[in-house]
Specification:
Layout: H1 9-16, H2 20-27, H3 35-44, H4 50-60, H5 77-88, E1 91-96, H6 107-114, H7 123-137, E2 147-153, H8 154-158, H9 164-178, E3 183-188, E4 202-206, E5 214-217, E6 224-226, H10 229-245, H11 249-262
Parallel strand pairs: 1-2, 2-3
Antiparallel strand pairs: 1-4, 4-5, 5-6
């Protein structure tokens, strides 16, 4: 908001009566900002989008520490950021080409993945990641759960991480989860042909207002977070394309059942 208005950090610091370093810490999420100061900044930045300002004020309110904070100092920051992003979203859309969505994985499937990380993780690190993954999955349960659409390529469904028995249990778990009211699971079969993107995992998390939408992409070095208008539009189109060529929810469940029977 400040940079869009071409206002310097020095000007913002003087406006709010703080030093420049505090502006940097506020904008990076390290330091809190009061609702009054936030509204003062918005006014002087010429921001008249009230829903956007209200959403920012809501974010600035003191709140309980998220469950992921228990893992601070023991897990990489990127994993904590993913959990917080999911917890703050009102709707999520995700596309997976080679893996089952993390929020829909069984513990055995997740363990098989954590044990092939390079460099190899010690068992206590594997246990921490598994515990974190299981807690993340609770976001899909309860009355306040966000809507979730997962697009899974046939290749991911046929990967036998952990062996046939683990893979079959994972497919059955997908079927069970796909029956939940706020979860939509779509399969992209091989025969659907080409689709955009480099094949990496893409999560589009919608915020309270469009300006707070965020895309998270998995990479071997950790998660990347994107939020510019151009990037958001690109990945919305990416997911729209994949949804358009995917099977319907009912056909997707039949497809998963067929693969499970073949194991």
């Amino acid at each position: 908001m400040r940079t869009a208005a071409d206002i310097s950090a020095e000007f913002a610091a003087g406006l709010l009566g703080v030093d420049r370093g505090k502006i940097s810490n506020i904008e990076s999420g390290i330091r809190a900002i009061s609702p009054d100061r936030l509204r003062t900044l918005a006014c002087n930045c010429g921001c008249t989008d009230e829903p956007y300002v209200d959403a920012l004020v809501e974010m600035a309110q003191p709140r309980r520490r998220g469950w992921w904070e228990r893992y601070r100092g023991t897990l990489p920051q990127g994993l904590l950021d993913i959990a917080e992003l999911e917890a703050c979203s009102v709707r999520m859309r995700a596309a997976y080409s080679m893996h089952i969505p993390g929020l829909l994985q069984t513990s055995d499937h997740a363990l098989a993945l954590f044990r092939v990380v390079i460099p190899k993780l010690p068992e206590h690190e594997v246990a921490l990641r598994l515990a974190h993954r299981v807690e993340r999955q609770h976001i899909l349960d309860g009355d306040t759960a966000p809507e979730y659409t997962g697009i899974v390529h046939e290749a991911a469904l046929r990967m036998q991480f952990g062996g046939p028995a683990v893979a079959q249990a994972q497919l059955n778990h997908l079927l069970t989860r796909s029956e939940q009211e706020k979860i939509t699971l779509l399969v992209l079969p091989f025969e659907a042909g080409a689709f955009p993107g480099a094949g990496q995992t893409v999560l589009y998390a919608e915020g309270q207002v469009p300006q707070l939408d965020t895309v998270q992409i998995d990479n071997s070095h950790g998660p990347d977070f994107l939020y510019s208008k151009v990037q958001l539009a690109k990945y919305r189109a990416h997911l729209d394309w994949m949804e358009d060529i995917a099977l319907s929810p009912e056909a997707s469940r039949d497809f998963i059942r067929t693969i499970a029977r073949q194991l």
